[in-house]
């Protein structure tokens, strides 16, 4: 058995029932296939796979009226079965040994114990996948960069409801703080070209 990759972890973010339905079927199908391939590769290298979902307690005490985006959805969130909302899509289901983390905002770090989990495992490099590019991907990347993590974004393992925002983030914003690669390039060990 190969030795566990001790400094890199794959993060699968917000690939949950309550969010995946917000994207068109063909987009979520392609995204799920790419992320599934990244998960398979990570597991083949004994790399930790960490699932991050967003969810709230009954009564939504975590949602402040001052938070423009979450407060706007408060009525909708209050009607949801939060257990069903936070379930990870069956096609990407965690396996024994995978870690699941619950967050309370866009960033995978906010309101979660993700940093404790990463630190305990000696993780210094995180590989980001998930939906949406302008939500969890952007917020997690920015916070991770401020925390001095090495970051790789898998470009074909994220999507956004706004294709232009997705393109601008991948082409112009993310490369300032992360390596941006396709999942196949990452698995092949290809390094990003210098900008």
UniProtKB/TrEMBL annotation:
Keyword Hydrolase: yes
Stored SUPFAM superfamilies: Isochorismatase-like hydrolases
A Gene Ontology molecular function term of the record: hydrolase activity
UniProt keyword list: Hydrolase
InterPro entries: Isochorismatase-like_dom, Isochorismatase-like_hydrls, Isochorismatase-like_sf
Superkingdom, taxonomy of origin: Bacteria
Residue ranges of every copy of the Isochorismatase-like domain listed in the record: 8-183
Presence of keyword RNA-binding: no
Pfam families linked to this entry: Isochorismatase
Protein name: Nicotinamidase-related amidase
């Amino acid at each position: 058995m190969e030795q566990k990759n001790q400094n890199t972890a794959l993060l699968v973010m917000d690939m949950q029932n309550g969010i995946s339905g917000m994207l068109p079927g063909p987009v979520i199908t392609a995204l799920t296939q790419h992320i599934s391939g990244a998960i398979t590769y990570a597991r083949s290298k004994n790399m930790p796979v960490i699932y991050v979902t967003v969810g709230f307690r009954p009564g939504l005490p975590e949602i402040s009226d001052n938070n423009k985006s979450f407060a706007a959805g408060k009525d909708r969130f209050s009607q949801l079965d939060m257990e069903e909302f936070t379930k990870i899509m069956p096609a990407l289901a965690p396996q024994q040994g995978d870690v699941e983390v619950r967050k309370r905002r866009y960033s995978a770090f906010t309101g979660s114990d993700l940093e404790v989990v990463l630190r305990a495992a000696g993780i210094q490099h995180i590989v980001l996948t998930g939906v949406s590019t302008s939500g969890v991907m952007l917020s997690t990347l920015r916070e991770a960069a401020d925390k001095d993590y090495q970051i790789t974004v898998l470009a074909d393992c994220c999507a956004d409801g706004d294709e232009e925002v997705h393109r601008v983030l991948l082409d112009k914003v993310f490369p300032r703080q992360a390596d941006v690669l396709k999942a196949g390039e990452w698995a092949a060990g290809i390094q990003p070209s210098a900008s």
